[in-house]
Amino acid sequence: MQITSRFTIAVHVIACVGYFQDTRSVTSAFLAGSVGVNPVMIRNLLPLLRDAGILSVSQGKSGVRLTRDLSDVTFYDVYRAVDCVDDRGLFHFHAQPNPACPVGKTIHAATDGRLSDVQRAMENEMKTITLAGVVADVVRLNRQ
Amino acid sequence: MQITSRFTIAVHVIACVGYFQDTRSVTSAFLAGSVGVNPVMIRNLLPLLRDAGILSVSQGKSGVRLTRDLSDVTFYDVYRAVDCVDDRGLFHFHAQPNPACPVGKTIHAATDGRLSDVQRAMENEMKTITLAGVVADVVRLNRQ
DNA sequence: TAACTTGTAAGTTTAATTGTTACAGGTGTA
DNA sequence: TACACCTGTAACAATTAAACTTACAAGTTA
């Protein structure tokens, strides 16, 4: 299993807007060119990032712009915005444990809390990572 | 995205063996009945758990037995044993960032370490959770 | 108004997971 | 040794989810 590429694409998109917004007009076609996917995938992503307050999108020629300082945008914000992990949680619980079995009847209750702990540990780590750091590394790597 | 149900099925299987092995012969058919899946799925799982040193499997009538104390078996051991996350890692990186773009060229290097940090945080939490705790909860819930 | 853009619907392709049938061969008991 | 039962595994079908594509209505700015 893997977390959807929507997450890494979203990180790429935000980094790209941060890197280019003062130099040129950033459109979905331009972003798609950098990421290497169809522009429609970008256009499906942008409203999610806009609704999360990370960037603004204009249908005119002005393009995409950041609305928040990237030191205030974490991996967790992006992960929530693009909804990589749905309500069912990170772990996919098998559907029908047998209620007539003492273990089948209780396994859900006995594991759910622990699975949530694991998911929360992952999310807490995501909260410590900012997009500003990513863009800083992109800038640094381009200077070398 | 979600982590394969193989993981929660494996936890269920181990808990079941722990709960029943002193009472009755535990076979793949019995385990499949408790989990609610086809016996072949269980039979595909058992060799993985056996190779990880968690249990032993007999083709005769003696059934499946644990080979290690469950206080020494963690979620991480199970997760490694059933190979939920392959070499590519937890995050699915989009395949072709444009090398002609300063961001596309460097985004991989700028994010890989951070993505590994997130995955490692999840795995470290898994190392703190034992199957003994799960079985203890199953037993407790059946007494109530 | 013209040129360009986003938002979104609808449908196709691709890949991964899950489920199934079938059977060869190992194991233990009588 | 023979029988009943079990696992291991191959081969394949079904299902689901992700990724990609085409097409077009509607908004925006110069």
Shape descriptor of chain A reads elongated
- The main sheet of chain A orders its strands as 1-2
CATH topology of chain A: Arc Repressor Mutant, subunit A
Oligomeric category? homodimer
What's the helix count of chain A?
A: 6
Strand runs of chain A, count: 2
Taken in chain order, the helices and strands of chain A follow as HHHEEHHH
- CATH superfamily membership of chain A: Winged helix-like DNA-binding domain superfamily/Winged helix DNA-binding domain
Largest interface: pair, residues per side = A-B, 62 and 62 residues
Termini of chain A, distance in Å? 35 Å
Radius of gyration of chain A: 19 Å
Structural class of chain A: mainly alpha
Number of domains of chain A: 1
Rounded mean pLDDT score of chain A = 90
What's the story with the biggest beta sheet of chain A?
2 strands, antiparallel
Uncertain stretches of 5 or more adjacent residues of chain A: none
CATH class of chain A: Mainly Alpha
CATH architectural group of chain A: Orthogonal Bundle
Which bin fits the share of residues in helices of chain A? 55-70%
**Strand percentage of chain A:** under 5%
Question: Can you walk me through this structure?
Answer:
2 copies of one chain form a homodimer. The first copy, chain A, has 144 residues and is mainly α. Helix content of chain A is 58%, strand content 4%. Chain A has 6 helices and 2 strands. A two-stranded antiparallel ribbon of chain A has the order 1-2. In chain A, strand 1 and strand 2 (64-66) form a beta hairpin. The longest helix of chain A is centred in the last third of the chain and has 25 residues, at 102-126. The mean pLDDT of chain A is 90. At the A-B interface, helix 1, helix 2, helix 5 and helix 6 of A face helix 1, helix 2, helix 5 and helix 6 of B. The structure holds a DNA duplex (30 and 30 nucleotides).
